[in-house]
Task: inverse folding
């Protein structure tokens, strides 16, 4: 037996079908405005805010690790070496005796050592150029790796006037210190009483590296700068 829809039922079904078409995405031809929240939101509104850019590190943000030479002939570039050290004998045992020279192994300083002795014991490279025919002319370059406490205290210790503890001309003097070569540079210059020649001691403390350049009657042209360029590039 077939069921027959009445006029009321047919009208109700038409309303349901029209309502279903209006809810379908992308449908056209409906005269009634959509009340769906999704229809009133622009598709480009989601994620339209620009992300915050992340700054990239620059050359000045990245610390350059030191590269300590293992040979005294490599402490500066070849041109600077020939112009400064020339053909002077290197690490001549007759000049330095039993003191270890060249690439050396750090040792423990004595219990009563001052900071200069502490830095000397931390040496990893010791270089000396002295002509045995000269009484006082010579050049020395020492490189040491020290702990943070020593690196922080050493410039202040050099700048302070101390009582002499040995017969070295560097005892009882005060160094002039200033910022240079991205570290602290301390220098003391004097004139040898007997020979009347200039003697200088220059110390650079940068990070955990201490570079000491000792000169006697041996003028140089920014030797420290050449060493810094070799170690830090």
Result:
């Amino acid at each position: 037996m077939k069921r027959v829809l009445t006029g009321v039922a047919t009208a109700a079904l038409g309303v349901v079908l029209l309502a279903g078409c209006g809810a379908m995405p992308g449908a056209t031809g409906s005269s009634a405005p959509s009340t769906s929240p999704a229809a009133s939101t622009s598709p480009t509104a989601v994620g339209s805010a620009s992300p915050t850019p992340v700054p990239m590190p620059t050359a000045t943000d990245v610390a350059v690790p030191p590269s300590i030479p293992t040979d005294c002939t490599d402490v500066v570039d070849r041109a600077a070496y020939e112009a400064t050290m020339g053909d002077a004998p290197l690490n001549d045992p007759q000049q330095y005796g039993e003191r270890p020279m060249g690439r050396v192994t750090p040792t423990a300083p004595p219990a009563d050592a001052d900071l200069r002795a502490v830095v000397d014991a931390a040496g990893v490279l010791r270089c000396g150029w002295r002509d045995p025919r000269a009484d006082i002319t010579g050049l020395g370059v020492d490189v040491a790796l020290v702990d943070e406490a020593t690196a922080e205290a050493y410039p202040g210790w050099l700048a302070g006037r101390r009582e002499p503890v040995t017969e070295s001309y560097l005892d009882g003097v005060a160094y002039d210190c200033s910022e240079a070569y991205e570290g602290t540079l301390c220098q003391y210059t004097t004139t040898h009483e007997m020979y009347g020649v200039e003697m200088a001691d220059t110390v650079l403390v940068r990070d955990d590296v201490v570079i000491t350049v000792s000169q006697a009657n041996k003028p140089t042209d920014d030797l420290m700068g050449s060493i810094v360029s070799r170690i830090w590039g």
User: Anything to note?
Assistant: Confidence is low (pLDDT under 50) at residues 1-48. Strands lie at 102-103, 123-130, 138-145, 176-180, 183-191, 198-206, 209-216. The longest strand covers residues 183-191.
